[in-house]
Every structure is written in C-alpha cells, then in structure tokens.
Amino acid sequence: MIPYILLQTLVLPIIASIFIFLTRYKTGRKAGFIAGATLIYTTALLCVVGIRVYQGEIIHEEYLSFPIVNLNLLADGLSIAVALIMNLCCVVLAFYSIHYVGHRVDVIYGKLDEKTWLMYYTRFFVLFPFFATGFIGIAFSTNLIAMYFFMELLTIIPLYFIMAQFGYSDFIERYKVALMCLFWGIAGATVFLIGILLAYTHTGSFEIASLSTLAGNPVAIWVILFMLIGLFSKLAIFPLHIWMPWVHAEHPTCIAGLLAVYANIAAYVMVRVLILPLYDDFKVFCIPIMVLALITMIYGSLLAMAQNDVKRFAACSTISQISYSVFGLGALTIWSIEGGLFFFLAHIMGKAILFSTAGILVYVTGVRDMREMGGLASRMPITAVLWTMGAMSLSGLPPFSTFPAEWAMFTGIFMFGIHGPSIVLIIAVIGVVAVGLTIAYTFWSVKRIFFGPLNPNLLNNPGIRDPPVLMWLPVLILAVISIIIGLYPKPIFDLFHLVIGLL
Amino acid sequence: MILVPAEVAWLCFLFPFAGALLSPVLARIHPRLRDYGALFFSFLAALCSVMFIPYLFHLEKLPLEVAFVWLTVPIELNVGVLVDPLSIVMANVVAVISFIIMVYSLGYMKGDQCLTRWWMWMNLFIGSMLLLVLSNNLLFLFIGWKMVGLCSWGLIGFYYKDERKYWIGGPPPTKYTTPSHCGLKAMVVTSMGDVLMLGGILIMYAYAGTLNILELYATSAVWIPEMAKSSGLILLMIVMLLAGPIGKSAQFPLHEWLPEAMAGPGPVSALIHAATMVKSGVYMVARLLPIFYYGYWVSGCIEASYFFILIAWVGAITAFIAATQGMVALELKKALAFSTVSQIGYMMLALGVAGLTFSSLEGGFTSGIFHLFNHALFKACLFLCAGSVIHTAHSIYMNDMGAIKKFMPFTWVFMLIASLSLMGVPPFPGFWSKDAILASTLATNNYPLFALALVTVVITAFYTTRFFGMTFHGMESKNIEKLKKKGAHLTEVHRTMVIACGALAIIIIICGLFGLPLEHFFGHGFGHTLAELNLPFEHARHSMPHLLVPLLSVLSVVTGVVPAYLLYFSGKIDPAGIVEKHASMKILHRFLWNRWYIDSFYYMFFVGGTTRLYTLVPRYIEKPLDNFFHKLIPSIPGRLVNLVKYIQTESGTISFNLLYILLFYIFVLLVILWVVLR
User: Fold this and answer.
1) What are phi and psi for residue B542, nearest 5 degrees?
2) Could you tell me where the DSSP H helices lie in A110-214?
3) Which of A350, B78, B515, B564 could form a disulfide with B465 if both were Cys (CB 3.0 to 4.6 A apart)?
4) Across the interface, do B73 and A497 touch by the CB < 8 Å criterion?
C-alpha cells in the first residue's frame, strides 16, 4: 500500500518544480529529465491507482478540511482514467521539451552567457510541472472551489508565464497573446464560479456531490447555464472559440499539446459537475449543446482548411475536435457520454502527437507556413510518419484510440436520434458527415507538408532532417499507446462505466 | 478430408500484419531477407486461406465462429472470425491473388529505394482485407474497411515525390494529376461513403442491438418490423449503408476516384484497385443482402426492397457509364480502371436483382460472387500484364505502344486470355459469370436493366479489343521506334513478373474449362448458406442455361469486337479520322473523354464549393468575431473613461447642468415611490 498516493501525484510535480528552481544552475540542462522522471513516477502511481480502481476500489483521501472548502481527492473510474492519460501527455511533452526549449531560448533570447541561458531554460521546467498538478487537481477534486482553484492555477502559472516567456512572435505580441489567454481563462472560470456560487446559495456546500440536491430545483437550470457558458469558453465552442487560434498558435509547441488538454478537460468537468449530479435537469440543454457542437465541428474544420500556418492549422483542428466530445456529451446517453469522454482522452493524445510534430517542423525548417514546406517526407521520414499518425488519430481511423471513441460516441448519438426527437437524427447524420471533413483537411495537410517535390527554399538546407531522438521517440511512444488503447479499449470503457454506468 | 479448426482463420490476417511489422526489422538484417520475408508472410496467409477450401465440401459444418470478448460495456461485443462459404471464397480470392501479386512485385519493384515501405503497406493491406472479409461483426469489418482505405491512400501515393514520370492524365490540354493528389482524392471520396455507412450501421445497431453478422440475420425478424414502424427510417439506413460500398467499389456517383487511383505502381492497381479492395463493396452488399431480403420477402417491409432496386440500378448505370468512358481512354491502366468500375457494376446488378423476385436470390447472389471471383483473376492478370507492357514501353499511353506482341509474346498470350475472359467469350470464366448475371437479370423481367447490361457487353467487347489492339497490334508507335533507336531492351520483363502473369492465366483457363461446374459449386454453397438462414426462395436449377441469353451475349460480343477490330487491329480505318470527320462523333468523343463531365462537376461543386466556403469563413465570420472580442470589448473601458472625461469637462454647459438636475429628481422620485409602495 502506497501512502498518500493521490496526494503524491498532486504534490510531487510542485516539489520537483521547487527543486529545479532552487538548484537551477546545478541541475541546468538536466532540469527536463528531473521534471520528466517525476512525472514518470506519478504516472506509475496513477497506474497503481488505476489497477485498484479497476478492481472495484474507490480511493478517497481527505486533506485540509476548512469549513466550506477542502482538498479531498477522489479517484474513481472516471477521474483515474482522465488523470492517467493527461499525466501521460505531460510526461511525453516534458521529454520532448528538453531539446525544444533550448531551441526556443536560443531563438528568443539570442546569444546568452551560460548562467542566463540556464536561468531561462530551467524556468520552463519550473513552470511545466504545474500543468500536471493542475490537471490532476481538477480530475481528483471533490470540491468545486478546489476545482476552480486548479483551473485558475493552470491559467495563471504555466499558461500565462510560459506563453509570455517562451511563446512565438515578438515580445509585445507574445505578452499580448499571453494576456489574451489569461483573460479568457479567467473570464471562463469566473462565469463558472458564478454558477458555483449560485449553487452554493441553495445547497450551502461547495461539494460536487451536494449539487445533486439541486435536482428538480428551477435554479439548477441557471446553475447549469452559467457553468456551461464558463466551460464553453474553455472548450472553445463557437463563438467563444476566438481565443484558441491565437493562443494555440503562439504558444511554444511543446505545451500547445497540453493546451488541448487544458481546453478539453472542461468536458470532464461538464460530466463530473453537471451531468452526473444533475442528469435530468441537464436534458433541457441537450439539443442546443449538440447544435452548437455541430456548428463548431464544421466551422473548426473549415477554419483549419483555410490555414497556411502549421500551428494555427492544428489550433483550428482543436476547435473542431473538442466539439466532438461535447457533441457526444450533449446526447446524454451512456454510450455517448463514455464515448465523448474517451474521445477527449484519445484527442489529447492525437493532438499532442500533431502539435509536437508541428513543433518539430518549426524546429527543423524554421518556417511555419505550409506553403514554404512541401516534400519533406524524403528528408524527414520519421516526422512524416508522426504527422500521418496524428492525422489518422484526428480522423478517427483505426487502430488509433479515437476510432473506438468515435464509434461509441456516435452509437449513443444515433441511439438518442432514433429514440428521441427526429431532429437529433438529422444532427447525427450531419455529425458523421463532418468526420469526412476532418479526414479531408488532415490528409490534405500531409500532402501539403510532406509530399511532392522538396520546396526549393529548403533544398540547400542541410539541416532538414529528422530531429534528435529525444524529440521524436516520446511522441512515437504516445502514438503506440494510443494504438494499444485503440486496439483494446476495454480497460478505459470499464473504468468509465464504473461511474457513468450508474446513470 | 481434414478440416482445420476455425482458429486458423485468425492467422490469415495475423500473418500479414506480422509481416508488415517485421519488414523494417528484417530490412536492417538484409534487404533480401526483408523481400522474401514479406513474401513468406503473404504466402502463409494464402496457405491458411486455402486450408479452408475443404469446408466448401462439408457445408453442414458451416458457419463457424470463433470470438473473444472485446468489450463488455457500454456495449457487449465479441469479436472474431466468421467462416462461411462467402468468407472462404473471399479470403481465398484475396490471399491467393495477393500472394501472386507479391511475387510479381519482387521483379516490378526491384531496385526501388523505398521497398521497406512498400512491403509494409502491401502486407498491411493484405491483413486488413482479410480482416474485413473474415470478421464476424460489422465493427471489425469496418475497421478492416477503413484500413484498406488507408493502405490504398498510401499505395496510390507511393511515389509521393510526384516526379513527372509518375503523373497520370494528359496528354495536354487534358490536365495531369500527381500521385499524391490521386491518393488524397481516393481517400476523401471513399471516406465520405465510409462515414455514411458507419451511420447506417449505427442505425441498424440501434434497433438490432447487435453487430454480430449471424445475430443480425437471426434477429432480423424482430428488428426489421420494429424499424418499419418509423416511416422512411429503413430507406435512410439503406442509403447510408450503401454509400460505403458505392464509394469503396467506385460505383456511380462515387466512382470518380478509381481512374486516378492508377497513379499507384502496377501491382497496386492489380491488387487493390482491381482484384480485392474495390470488391469489398460487393462483399458488403452480399453480407447485408439476407437482412433486407428477409425484411422484404418475409416481414413484408416495402422499404426493404429499395436495397435491391437501388443497388441494381446503381450497378447497371455504373456498368454502362464506365464502359463508355473506357472506349476512349488513352492510358492503358485507365482503360482497365474504367473496365473495373464497369464490371463491378455487373456484380452489383447481380446482387440487386437477387432480391427483386422470389426466384432470383440464389442465381443473383451466386452470379454476383462468381463474377467477383472470375473478375479478380482476369483483371489482376490484365493489370499485371499492363504493368509489364508499361515497364517495357516506358509510357502509360496506348498510342505510345503498338505492335508490342513481337517483343513480349508471353505477355501477349496472358493478356489475350484475360481479355477474352473480360469480353465474355466462351469458354473463358468471364463468359460463365456474365452469362449468369444476364440470365438472373432477365429472370426478373426487368427489361430496362437487362437491356443496359446487354449494351454494356457490346461496349466491353469494343473497348477490350481496342486496348488489346492498340497495345499489341497495329503499327509500331513513334515511341517504340524511338526506343529501338536508342537501343532500349524491348523484351519480356523480369521472370517473376512473367511467372505471376502466367500463373494467373493458367488459373483463368482452368476456371474457364470448369466454368459451369464451378458455378454450380458456388451456387450449391451459397444456396446452402441462404437456406440455413431460413430465407424463402426457389433453388436455381443447375442445368445448361437457357440458350437465349448465351446467344445474345455472344452476339453482343461479336457486335463490339468487329468494329473495334477494323479500327484498331487491321488498321484499315483510322479512328482519329472518323472522329475528326463527323461533328457528332467529335462531340461524343469529347463527352466521353471528359468522363461525362462528372469529374469536372465534382471538382467545381465540391472542391470549388468547399474552397470558396473556407475562404469566406475567416473573412466574414472569424475576422468580425475576432474584432468584436479582441478589439471592441477591450475598448469599452477606454470609451467609458473618455465619456466620463467628456461629461466632466462639459459640466460647465447649461444643458449638462439641466440633465444632472433632471436625473437627480428622477432618482428622488423613484426613492419616494419605492418607500411609499413598500
């Protein structure tokens, strides 16, 4: 029995962060390995938790109990699956960042003395572990204020500071976009907080479990509405998606993959906070949510097609893809909820692959415009394979985990369409057709970037080759994990069903 | 006779998958080990498939199913293999032809720099295709379905660098197309059908509660009538379900991707775009057929009959349209591609007519699958021979060939055998199966369908004679003369290529000689399966077919061959002169050359429309929204500050003083009212 197992997963990344900060000049270039190793350890812990939960145990740890706010952590089938995959993405991107951040520091700050360089370099790894803490905190929290706290923590510490200091564009633009990210994050969380406070006025508690006492109460509709608007701004649902292309495109690519997690985690919050306790009240919102999600799916795809910037392309694809999860959750059937949540996990893996590969492209070629690429497969075969894997994953092609996720999700959506209002069936049919759009834009990007003759501008560049192994291997491992889950999704569905099946 | 356990069916697709995974490892040891290793794994797949043939003589032991639990929640799903006559026939067609084509590849791809990638894709394709045909449930069938689509994309665009020599299309003013573009086109067009089919499967699941094929058959008596209570739902499901096969098997209106798929290497065209993958749509229709037959003939759901009507008409129209396009094609492989589309149309027609009358089920079903079997053989042979000819002539155009017979006598013989089969000349296998299709169509008394099918026989004979004549006979082209002057080695190709073509030609002859018994054997197997499913139908009488149909068939062949012979063999009439001379012929030629303008329409409507849409979206929606959220809203505090400053600075004027006084008294009044009314 490992003591404080959930607390360890939450706190160890912060301890690693502090350690890196305190020893930054000594640890130097090893900072990334320290962050990565810590996250590997917490992933191992989460695997242990996962096995215990799979065997029917529910792990509940209580800490810091104040009168109305506490830090209780709960690992059940839903939270452990989500936490594990999110942490896995953090591990992969921590190792990926080791080379990438050095490159960013060189690009942004130019020639520096060793000490200053190390200061910047290690600063990234001081901030990075907060992602893991934020994600795990949201996944395991049983208290709404604690959940809100972790949402804000993510927005402020890793997102704002990393964007501001390691993002793309010039100094002013970087800070501008970082501020934009901060404002949108805070605005969304604040509207969510209004919903929390409104619920509190009727329940007298900030515990998520107590929200179920609102069931049937007219105020529940308002609570759901406020929280939904807050979550929709995180989920980048049309028209609240407008921050996503900016923020995703200008963030350093090594964390852009985690931005997809940051946005998509709201789907988990939606299930945990709204659907599970207020299932019947939530039904009012089913069709509007599905319609909005459908619009976003198609809109995001069209937007992605319009992009020439490889990072913006991935960002617009995220807008479209996240709404798939929401589409599934909106249908409110067991299949669609489990499928929607599974899609969230599958998507973040796929997006981490795609964004990381976009980062490799920028790292190697120094350009972001797809029109200035072309024909790279001949010089960068591994990168081409990774990008294709990302494209396959986003397109929901087997054997990637997005396939069983989409399949389960659409099963639930069609179930709802058949047995519910006939408009839903039309929405469902349009929804599957929208998948075709995803295939079109993802595979088009493969053609634009990697196929055809090598771009004349890159012809004489000897540096056009696959990146160091430490950059591509973690991404490849993530792709393999996604394939394994895609081939055998039973453990994930079983875990989800322990909670969702109770509906 | 020893019967292998059903578990062996797993190995049919696991071996090629293993081959795909091991190729890079073997390549590191030695390139030859990689090549022969890949071949060995495909051989094992073929061997495993052949081991199931004895079951066709022990039909009482079929169907067999071996499955394991894949999911228990939210849906219980046992996935595994289904061994029945249909899957045995399909698995053997796929695995055996694949192996022969892999042998051919040894020579064809010799010296290519990307052989590891080649063997990986090829083995992945073989495994996926076998997964598709052996799966016991629609979900894993769909997984195989998507994976063969992916392999098709990867192999069409195999020459991804888009070097000029790999372009297809032309000659100018007709535009050229690059391999990577062709791959993308195939992927997008077929995917549109695929996603709709997925929707159809899910609608079916919503009522049937199972994805297991045998369970779907067994429970159709319950769920089809239940579904029929919602008007239009069965029709919607049928349209969605058929979209997949129509896309994958390149049937009208989703047929336009296949001619461009010829950008892939020759073995790819033979394996994927002639013999196997494009048949998966036919297989899918055959798999679904019993469900709708039951729905229509037993449950009495009229909507279920649309399955047959739709597919029969789609098949007949496609057969005709594609055949007419094949009459004017200049690229050898493209001519064969149009022919493939057309011939698959025949198969679809056969499966469609199977459900139109009570007595045509067995005949229609058998003739459709029998034609699939025969076509896989002769079309694979044709494509492999075409690959050899293109290899020698260094050109994809038939008018760059001519009189090649003397350089490639073996290839000439093999292609002749395959061509005669394609035309439907007795006793070659194509004759038997096409004749059976015509007979089944006629038996339904649907004369328009029969007429369309018969006219297509004429056109088939014409274009086959044309491409054969243009390639092997007539005068030597300028290209050949140039090659000879350069001292090019105009001779038979690598021996593995000749052996592979020869093997297929021998199998074609054997199948032709035993055509009628083979057809009866197929009929017996499928009849047994259909009867086991408790489908009510009249068994076909296995005797010599009525003479009218074979007579009409042979006459049609002669009608097509004679003009084509005069034009392209004897050289007595100049085809170009005829087209130039007659305006109507010119218009018709242009119409057919432009593929009925269907492809141009799709490019204009779908590609152009989407392009227009995605350029408008950022300009008219995204930009205004961005301005609103990121410029207008952030400017509000500044504007408020300015307003307050304005009010402050302007407070000395009389109008502002009066306004303040007025507002103050309104406020006082409201306070008083609130107090009083309280």
Assistant:
1) -85, 70
2) 114-127, 129-140, 144-154, 162-166, 171-203
3) B564
4) yes
Give the residue among B83, B100, B85 at the shortest CA–CA distance from B42. Answer: B100
User: Of A180, A86, A85, A165, nearest to A125 (Cα)?
Assistant: A165
CB atoms within 10 A of CB B25: 12
Angstrom CA distances, B188 to A251, A340, B40, B145, B257, stand at 31, 24, 33, 14, 9
Q: What average pLDDT score do residues B359-369 get?
A: 94
Put simply, the chain B residues between 80 and 109 with a CB less than 8 A from any chain A CB are none
For residue B540, pLDDT beyond 70: no
Within 562-621 of B, beta carbons closer than 8 Å to A belong to 610, 613-615, 617-618, 621
The residue in chain B having the minimum alpha-carbon distance to the alpha carbon of residue A448 is: B180
B618 CB neighbours in chain A (<8 A) are: 303, 306
Element (H, E) at B56: none
| CA atoms of B195 and B182, how far apart (whole Å) | 20
> At B44, which amino acid appears?
L
Which residue among A239, A334, A412 places its CB closest to the CB of B625?
A239
pLDDT tens per residue across span A79-137: 999 999 999 999 999 999 999 999 999 989 888 899 999 999 999 999 999 999 999 99
- Per the CB < 8 A criterion, the answer to whether B434 and B457 are in contact is yes
Subunit contact B613:A432, Cβ cutoff 8 A:
no
Written as one letter, the residue type at B34 is R
pLDDT of residue A53 exceeding 70, the answer is yes
Round to whole Å and give the CA distance between B535 and B45.
Answer: 33
| Model pLDDT for residues B472-501, shown as the tens digit of each residue | 998 889 999 999 898 888 888 888 999 999
Tell me if B487 sits within 8 A of B359, measured CB to CB.
no
To which residue do tokens 């053989």 refer?
B377
Task: Name which of B401, B350, B324 is nearest B560 in CA terms.
Answer: B324
Domain positions in chain B are 137-161+174-593, 601-677
Strand, helix or coil for residue B397: strand
Residue B546, CA distances (Å) to B354, B356, B418, B450, B513 in order: 18, 20, 26, 15, 19
Closest CA to A340 of A326, A350, A352, A351: A326
Residue B248 sits at the chain A interface (C-beta within 8 Å): no
Given a cut of 90, whether residue B534 has pLDDT beyond it is no
Distance of alpha carbon B370 from alpha carbon B348, whole angstroms: 12
User: Which 3 state secondary structure label does DSSP give A333?
Assistant: coil
ipTM of the modeled complex? 0.94
User: What tokens does A45 get?
Assistant: 């812990």
Contact present, A285 and A228 (Cβ < 8 Å): yes
Q: B537 near B359, Cβ under 8 Å?
A: yes
Q: Where are the alpha helices (DSSP H) in A366-464?
A: 381-394, 402-419, 422-450, 456-459
The alpha-carbon gap from A207 to the nearest alpha carbon of chain B, in Å, equals 28
Who's near A322: CB < 8 A, 6+ residues apart? A235, A236, A237, A260, A263, A264, A267, A296, A344, A347
Over the stretch B291-339, which tens digit does the pLDDT of each residue have?
999 999 999 999 999 999 999 999 999 999 999 999 999 999 999 999 9
Measured at the CA of B602, the angle between CA B596 and CA B608, to 5 degrees, comes to 140
Asked whether B206 and A418 are in contact (CB, 8 A), the reply is: yes
Q: Which whole number is the average pLDDT over A186-205?
A: 94
Q: How far apart are CA A394 and CA A348, in angstroms?
A: 10
Q: For chains A and B, count residue pairs whose Cβ atoms are closer than 8 Å.
A: 141
Three-state secondary structure call for residue B114: coil
Q: What is the pLDDT of residue B575?
A: 87
Chain B hits for A500, Cβ within 8 Å: 74
Residue B534 to residue B531: CA distance in whole angstroms: 5
- Distances from the Cα of B14 to the Cα of B136, B138, B271, angstroms: 15, 19, 19
- Could you say which DSSP state residue B421 is in? H
